[in-house]
Amino acid sequence: MTLALLAAAEAVETARRDRLRARLRRAGATEIVEPGTAAELSTLLRNGDGPVLIVAADLVAHDAVLWHLATEPGDRSTALVRNGDGPHPVQVDGDGLRPAQTDGDGLRPVGDGGGHGLRLTQARGVITGVAATGPVVFLGAVRVAGRDRQRAAAAAELIGHGDDLVDGLVGSWLRAGARLHAYPLRLLIARRCRTGEAATRAETEIAGVDEERARLRLAVKERDDFVATFLVSSWSPVLTRICARLGLTPGGVTALSVVCALGAALGFAQASRPAMIAGAVLLYLGFVLDCVDGQVARFTRRFTPLGGWLDTMADRAKEYVVYAGLAAGAVRLGHDEGWWLAVAAMTLQTVRHTTDHWYGVLHDAAVPSGPVPGGRLAQPPSPALTRTGGALGRLSDRVIADGRSPLYWLKRIVVFPIGERWALIAVLAAFAGGRVALLAVLGWGVAALAYTLTFRGLRSLAMRRSVSATGDACRQRDDGPLARRLPALAGRLDWLVPAALRLIEYAALIGAAVLHRVPPQLAFVLLLAVAMHHYDLAARPGSRWSPRLEPGWDGRALVAVVFGGVAFPVVAVWTLGVLSWRVVTTRTRQARLPAQGGSARDAERAFAAGRQAR
Prior knowledge:
- With 614 residues, the protein is α/β, with parallel strands linked by helices.
- 59% of the residues lie in helices and 9% in strands.
- The chain has three domains: 216 residues, Spore Coat Polysaccharide Biosynthesis Protein SpsA, Chain A (Alpha-Beta Complex); 159 residues, CDP-alcohol phosphotransferase transmembrane (TM) domain (Four Helix Bundle (Hemerythrin (Met), subunit A)), CATH 1.20.120.1760; 174 residues, no CATH class.
- It is built from 23 helices and twelve strands.
């Protein structure tokens, strides 16, 4: 972020304005401009293509508040908000802040004497992906993504004479149908202060907060799964601080996590009790570091598309390598089915992850900021399905909103997330062996899949949406030359199609391995290669994909069934080779996608220097 706009600066004393300008520089701004009119604001927004931070001159806030807002990951426009109560002329429709029906007065500023802002409603998914409902207040700071600058410029032209520039911009933008994401204020201070006395009180509050400690707590996910919350996040900020002070990057922490997972797999493969216990400890440490890499990224504000891809791919590879270690240990103890259990567990997890990904796509498509071409279904759902889906949605929202209730934690545990899986593996592997651990993963995984499919299926039947027209569906289905000739399926349950295709392909590969007496270890390697290929397609939608090089799910299955054992190593090497080619050829282009890597590092140095100076 290089440009910051300081709105209505002439209404604020020079000393306050200078303090805010210094904070903006520490947040990463290299150029600060003070537009005095809506026309000037519109012109500044039109002339450029990078992200812009627009801040009301009467805002008094921690340095970290502006830094975090300026370095929000992803190319999306984000508004600074705090929780609030009372009437609200703006509400949220879906995954963003959107306009409500008003009495004709439009969006009006509200305040309590010490500040003001637009009253909004926070809806499901707005705040860092957490489902919650309640009123919030816009605090006069918004990050406009580069791709949204022209739309924001058009909204600025509609600001009324005498209106607050920042509030007016956000209000006009929302009325025009925009969808803003929300950055919720937590632990730190941000106030809009109309008077010098109010600003002095806010500065006193800011001085009374341990900013580094608050930033460490903010680096921890606000709502995480049970194991991550109680067995990791309770002490991981200490490790996050150590990693940051040692200069470790999020990618470096991910690499340490991979090393721990490899050590755990080797320990499980030995099958002796001491080795299994050592493997369990290493697996726990690997999960801790898996949480810490994201915390380091949020603490240092180092976000890159490549880093997100690396974290996703490493998580999956680590887990499946651990399955291999459990299988090898089970075979060492005489359980010849060990490798087939690992193959089944990997297949189940890949199918589950695919359903999770595409159900998320459906949920996003159900409440878009505009129509999705071909996405809305012609036939309305039956009243019974609508009532059932709506009731389930409201029940889920209530449970998630009550973030500390037993029912909330039960809901988080029953879906069997990665923390719970690794905890189960560690305990059972240490005391009951690899075979029992794999059987438990399979049993709980099947139950979790049945639970999620049942409730998500009922909810999706009530949504008049299809995901078949969302994105490059052919690419995400991984269709080969034969499957591309088939008509695409569309319907309320078409989010299940990619997962069904994964299951068909993996079942065909397993069947070919059994039919041709392929060693289960070789079948595992091929399925691992294919799974990583599928995760790459989902994790990096901008990566290159060439139908000429990739035979697709149908091509791989056909080759394996026809040619048997000879085809397995060839297809595995080919799939990994094509995956490596995609990684190499798209790395430069991914690095150019919107991210805050370099600017975040510069801002981090300025931020640290500013703290030392104070």
